[in-house]
């Protein structure tokens, strides 16, 4: 907690607060960030608020399995102790929930919010982030006690399943991994549920001005704006990029015909492939994420709905791969042949009792050469010979001559699949997938180099009465 002699820091984790049709945890985080200075006094951050995406295969996620960490500091005497901080944060969250439920009265039955506070975070915690990102965590009292022994404080009021995501988000800090930023802007509550109105041309202008430092703003092939979500959530648009200053440019460039009532810039593991840990086939258990180098073991088979299914194997076992139609990877999968070597990235789901790997990205590493051979002519009578089946050679039907090993004239068949990386179209890329535009832009977060950031640089509620 003690950052230097006078300044004390707290890591706050939040998840699963999307209790309302129109709510989302980033919206709550924006409110908390803006309220903290009012309750605590002069508050600084040691990092932009974090939007940490976790395992996309978790069956009970609402949307993108995102959790939040806010890391704030102030003079030690203003904080008193961690329990006091928890009470302050809980009161802010209570007020948020009260206002939202009064206004909208749409509480969902599986409300599982989690609020966690940590004053002493270290790299020893990163395992919970790694596991929450790539596997399933069963959070029991034993595990909870272990964290409590390390000084982590769990809210009693907000102690649902969300504590897993909240802890994982806190733990991401020490992972020292690649990262990006996202500016999220929020809608006036008057507009909730209506179609979002963002000027397409201004999105293209923003894209061209920030070309090398932001990504996935606009799909020029499909002439489609990519920054607006489709659901009921309160986000108007979100732009992703490499630095806070680049994503912030959206506020002055992108034009909307409904007001932006608030914005927050998050640091995030989005668009980094963080979940794609290298695994062998035997390690691809249900609900895990990862990538595996694998040999195609069966002919591609198209099922109803357009998805393509292929069996594949490595030295440790066999698994069924599925390539879905929206990813357009199904079209490439159909061109694969038995013996091709590929690296597939995605996550494992259960189809009844069968573990099936849902492919979200694929690198074709090596394609087998394929040949078309013409039947030989009979050396006795000159007629075309015909194949008699595997290992049985060729036979001339006219004169009965049999040759077990004739000289064949063969031509190499052009393969319709290249050795390269294949990704879904931009609109079908999930949060964690690293887009092509980010290759070679990877960077590494270094916790010991953090500097204090003013809250106002990271967030602003412009119209409080329209925000909550
Ligand atoms: P929103 O973006 O609106 O917050 P969401 O898609 O992030 O919604 P949540 O409603 O937060 O989804 O639900 C995800 C739940 O799953 C949270 O309670 C989180 O703690 C939990 N969770 C996340 N990852 C794991 C994991 N690997 N194992 C077990 N539980 C997990």
TrEMBL record:
The GO cellular component terms are:
cytoplasm
TiaS C-terminal zinc ribbon domain span? 376-415
- Residue ranges annotated for the OB domain, each copy included: 302-364
Claim: ATP-binding is one of the keywords in the record? yes
Q: Which UniProt keywords apply?
A: ATP-binding, Cytoplasm, Ligase, Nucleotide-binding, tRNA processing
UniProt-listed Pfam families: TiaS_FLD, TiaS_TCKD, tRNA_anti-codon, Zn_ribbon_TiaS
According to its UniProt entry, one GO biological process term is: tRNA wobble cytosine modification
- Where does the UniProt annotation locate this protein? Cytoplasm
Where do the TiaS FLD domain residues begin and end?
160-275
Tell me which family the UniProt entry assigns to this protein: Belongs to the TiaS family.
> What name does the UniProt record give this protein?
tRNA(Ile2) 2-agmatinylcytidine synthetase TiaS
Gene label:
tiaS
């Amino acid at each position: 907690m003690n950052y230097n002699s006078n300044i004390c820091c707290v890591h706050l984790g939040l998840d699963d607060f999307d209790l309302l049709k129109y709510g989302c945890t980033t919206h709550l985080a924006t409110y908390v960030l803006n309220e903290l200075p009012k309750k605590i006094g002069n508050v600084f951050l040691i990092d932009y608020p974090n939007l940490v995406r976790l395992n996309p295969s978790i069956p009970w996620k609402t949307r993108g399995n995102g959790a939040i960490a806010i890391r704030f500091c102030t003079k030690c005497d203003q904080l008193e102790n961690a329990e006091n901080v928890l009470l302050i944060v809980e009161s802010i969250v209570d007020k948020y929930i009260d206002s939202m439920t009064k206004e909208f009265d749409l509480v969902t039955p599986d409300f599982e919010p989690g609020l966690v506070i940590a004053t002493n975070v270290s790299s020893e915690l990163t395992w919970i982030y790694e596991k929450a990102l790539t596997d399933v965590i069963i959070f029991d009292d034993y595990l909870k006690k272990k964290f409590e022994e390390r000084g982590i404080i769990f809210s009693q009021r907000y102690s649902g399943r969300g504590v897993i995501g909240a802890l994982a988000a806190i733990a991401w800090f020490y992972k020292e991994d690649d990262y990006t930023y996202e500016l999220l802007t929020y809608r006036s509550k008057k507009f909730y549920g209506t179609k979002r109105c963002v000027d397409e041309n201004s999105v293209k202008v923003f894209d061209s001005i920030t070309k090398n430092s932001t990504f996935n703003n606009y799909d020029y092939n499909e002439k489609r704006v990519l920054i607006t979500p489709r659901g009921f959530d309160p986000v108007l648009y979100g732009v992703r990029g490499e630095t806070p200053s680049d994503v912030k440019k959206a506020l002055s460039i992108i034009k909307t015909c409904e007001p932006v009532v608030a914005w927050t810039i998050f640091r995030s593991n989005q668009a980094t492939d963080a979940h794609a840990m290298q695994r062998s086939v035997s390690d691809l258990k249900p609900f895990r994420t990862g990538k595996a180098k694998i040999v195609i073991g069966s002919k591609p088979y198209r099922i109803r709905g357009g998805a393509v299914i292929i069996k594949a194997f490595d030295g440790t076992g066999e698994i069924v791969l599925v390539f879905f139609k929206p990813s357009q990877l199904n079209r490439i999968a159909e061109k694969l042949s038995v013996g091709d070597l590929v690296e597939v990235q995605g996550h494992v789901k259960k189809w009844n009792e069968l573990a099936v790997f849902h492919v979200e990205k694929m690198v074709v590493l090596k394609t087998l050469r394929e040949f078309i051979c013409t039947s030989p002519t009979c050396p006795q009578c000159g007629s075309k010979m015909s194949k008699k089946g595997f290992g049985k050679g060729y036979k001339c039907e006219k004169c009965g001559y049999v040759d077990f090993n004739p000289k064949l004239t063969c031509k190499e068949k052009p393969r319709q699949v290249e050795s390269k990386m294949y990704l879904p179209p931009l609109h079908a890329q999930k949060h964690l997938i690293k887009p092509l535009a980010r290759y070679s832009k990877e960077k590494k977060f270094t916790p010991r180099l953090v500097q204090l950031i003013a809250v106002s640089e990271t967030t602003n509620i412009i119209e409080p009465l329209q925000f909550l």
